[in-house]
Amino acid sequence: MLKVEPASSYPPEEGRYLRGNDYSPVAVAVILIYDQDKIPPDIENLVRVGLESGAALSGTIQTESIGIEKLICNIVANPNIRYLVIFGPESPGHQTGDALLMLVENGVDERRRIIGAKALTPYLFNLPMEFIARFRQQVRMINLLDEGDPELLRRAVRCCFQEEPRSFRDYTLFDPGAYPEGPLAGQLTWRVTRPQAEPKDEGERQQRERLRDLMARMKQAAEKKRERE
Question: Are 171 and 63 contained in the same domain?
Answer without folding.
Answer: yes
